[in-house]
Amino acid sequence: xxxxxxxxxxxxxxxxxxVEALKDVSFSINRSEIHTIxxxxxxxxxxxxxxxxxxxxxxxxxxxxxxxxxTVIDPLYANSIGITMVHQELTIFKDLNVGENIFPNNIFKxxxxxxNKKELLEQSRRQLALFHLDIEPSEKIANLxxxxxxIVEILRATALKRKLVILDEPTSxxxxxxxxxxxxxxxxxxxxxxxxxxxxxxIPEVLEISDRITILxxxxxxxxxxxxxxxxxxxxxxxxxxxxxxxYSKKRQSTKIVEQAYFEVKDLGKENFVQHVSFELFKNxxxxxxxxxxxxxxxxxxxxxxxxxxxxxxxxxxxxxxxxHHPDQMMQHGFIYLSNNRKQAGLFFDMxxxxxxxxxxxxxxxxxxxxxRKEIRRYTQRFVERFNIVIPDVKTKPKNLSGGNQQKLMFSxxxxxxxxxxxxxxxxxxxxxxxKAEIHKFILGLPDEETSVIVFSSELPELMSLCDxxxxxxxxxxxxELTGDDIEEERIMALAAGS
Amino acid sequence: xxxxxxxxGKGLRxxxxxxxxxxxxxxxxxxxxxxxxxxxxxxxxxxxxxxxLSMEFLLIIGITLLLIMGEVDLSIGSVYAFAGVFTGLLVYxxxxxxxxxxxICLTVTGAIGFVNGFLVVRFRANSLMITxxxxxxxxxxxxxxINFLKGITYPYEYRAIxxxxxxxxxxxxxxxxxxxxxLEYLLINHSSFKKLxxxxxxxxxxxxxxxxxxxxxxxxxxxxxxxxxxxxxxxxSRSGQTVWNTxxxxxxxxxxxxxxxxxxxxxxxxxxxxxxxxxxxxTIILNGLIMYSVDPVWTDVVVGTVLILAIVFDTRINREKxxx
Lengths: 499, 324
Known about the structure:
- The complex is a heterodimer of chains A (499) and B (324).
- Chain A is globular and about 70 Å long.
- Chain A has 499 residues and is an alpha/beta fold.
- The model of chain A has no long low-confidence stretch (mean pLDDT 85).
- Chain A has 16 helices and 22 strands.
- Chain B is mainly α and 324 residues long.
- Chain B has one domain: ABC transporter involved in vitamin B12 uptake, BtuC, CATH 1.10.3470.
- Chain B has a two-stranded antiparallel ribbon.
- In chain B, a hairpin with a 2-residue loop joins β1 and β2.
- The radius of gyration of chain B is 21 Å and the shape is globular.
- At the A-B interface, α10 and β18 of A face α9 and α10 of B.
């Protein structure tokens, strides 16, 4: 079959104020191929995608869809010619059922104009069967796993004979097994003749699934490569423009660990969420806690910091039972929690970065309870420099920062409290390789500052490269604890996913 | 354009007009009325406007603090009415000494705030809904009390509170300026008051960083009810008798004023000085209507229009710039 272009991007340029987001980018996407657009945060991926989707008007350049120039800049128009997008954030209607989520536009009507439920469910069932999915269309969407919800979203985008679907980080926040299910679905979409524009930071995944990969850097088109012709290292080099060391290198054993329990969790339980969880954290240790979605890891992280209550068991810090168990009490014991979802919690998007930094340390940056503005600026500036946060001014609001810099700011807010123990929940979610490597370096440096660390991550390679010890969870409880050479990817996966 | 010219242009663009709009609009309205109506800019008129403001300023405080946290209390108008009549009942009917009556009344209004706050914090109830409930409940209870008391005139000492003067100026005017300025200073600079803004901007983040959101919200609900109670006692003292429908619609007037002053129903924003300016603006607009001999039945039409315009302008000015 001859290769046929479905979308041609011709010298597209877009500028926001002084920032040139895209500079004469040209390439094309073929029919029924999976085409990944790769680049660091700020490389211009999202701008390009918005232009394809009709949400933004380019300053220069043209788009051709199926050979015809696209002249109408409008998302609804893009939709009507067969271009759709699935956003990184879930946009499900959580009170509706699966079928209604696949076809939210009420296209199946009875003669009276009412919703034809039978037809709706029948069509939904057909869609689900197409991809061999064992989901009942009348099921409430809230009862589905995150992965299944995401699949429903993708079906919504593809069900109406779409030709080009843009998937923005569809696997973010999913565990290994769900990622597999999703990637299989995407391959099947491709075999159905749908073209896919894929956006992801996860390079192994990109290499597995893509036919071709286009790399953008600082708004420039770098190149488009065939999957077969490149390695992971090549891609990182093209994307970052420099060699990135340390990505997932095996960690050297930390010498700082004091083998004395700093933080002990004994027989912790909360009905329906976690049961009989016990482990201890040594001083200056980096402990990883790994489990698939639904294994109770996320709930456990919240319970440990007092964001949720527990019904049984005990939590001890340096041998003392913790009775009152709220975030502010945990902070008094030197604990701090890095949120796994910076869009939801962890930042104040509409306040200045300096105000963000001051939040957990209000008493430290004030005298007789009166805030010292200069001190707050200085304090913020210090962390901006220490963590290489790219920011015009400490007054800049986080909403105007890139994802990587937002994550680094959130990290700074936490570390500003001079914690003795940090709970890091997905510390590098949704950020580019450069920022990721930097954050990994900061984490590895924490034991040198007498800080113990617990990392909760769904990225196994990340945990393996950071942690001295890994606790594996399955079915709401701890199944195994691994150290040293026992930390092996296959072994952990077998423990977490095995029967 | 010259280098200097472009710099000025750039500088002007960086000034956030939205931030000062309430001051600008109030000054314009004030000047307009002063220039077009000769009776407006007279000592007696301006003084009576300011005095009226000083009777109501306590109400704007609670509403502003709550709006900063993204909460609201619609019961303040009813609590205002209830407090006035309830104190009257204690003093007139039960012949309890005035000062004791006031303490009892403030304790009771504090308890109302406690219940409002408890329901909002403990049951995660929507404060708009919950306080509609308390609003109706206390409106009803006030009517019961008035029905029982009939149209009485309060004892002299009760009526004298609002008229207490220092240097021939009503003390409430001094009180207003001192409290509002002190509170504004604290809101901007005090580490505990700053927490209200964090809570309003993102409650979850605030919790994550050790702010005791529930305790603070609960406290402010109590403060709001108690200040509404104080205002109610002052208001009843000024009118001197039981009046049907006292304080009706006051809650919406206060919300309108706070929104004019830049507060948002979504939380994270607000200033008591600006809210007071918002209230002053509303006051002079209403005064202006009288000066222009507009039939009072039009009052609500005007207030409604002002609120709608304020919200439209607010969203236009504060609309997020395209974020790249």
